[in-house]
Design goal:
The protein has 237 residues and is of the alpha+beta class. The chain has 2 domains: 1-71; 81-235. The protein has 4 helices and 11 strands. Strands 1, 2, 3, 4, 5, 6, 7, 8, 9, 10 and 11 form an 11-stranded antiparallel beta sheet that branches. It is globular, with a radius of gyration of 30 Å.
Amino acid sequence: MQKHFLKFVFVLAMVFTLTHTTRADVSEVESLRAENAQLKARVAELEKELARARQTSTELAQLAGVETPDESEQTLEARVKEVVDEKTGQTVMRTILSEFKTENSRGKHFLSLEFVKPASGDGKSVDGSIEARILTGATGSQYMQADHITITADGQAYDLPITSYDRTLRRAGDMRRRIDISDEELTFTLPGDVLEKLVKSSTLEGTLGNTKLTFTRDQILLMRAMQVRKADLVAQP
């Protein structure tokens, strides 16, 4: 009788162990499947980001005058616009907006570069400088008193005076609740010798009031692109 009882206990213990192990294995498999699904989703996301990064790199290389197998004028026109002012006859070259990385400011900040070629025969000389504009969104009057921007390229600081300032008021929200929002626009000149330093820098930062601006690689390449395209434009009759 005792032997039968011991056998029963042994069998019961084995069944419990197998059941527990099976449940644990199933739970572990489900966990691994979920983790695998997350990893696949992340890989797909990273592949998309890499594709976008490669496309951006190709476009900027084309803008900077670097030959690529699929160089396209359409890409150039998409990033740098050239128009002729009907009143003055001047050719204006302007980049698309490119967003800064910022600290100590909640509003968005964008950079735009511009060069105006004097009309032929007006006697004006052309130097290596270009105009830079910083456009902000929802910053109120944060930069109304700013009189300069400091740009630091690989540890070398350049203080550049603000040459113009403008603030635009717009309204947001629905009819029940409208909010007044102020956007700002500041202009400063990038002299040719300073621009030459900036386009060759590995790190580029700016200080505007209390806001720290980090120039992205995209923005540095756009500066280089403007420098090259400006030289081509000036060389034209």
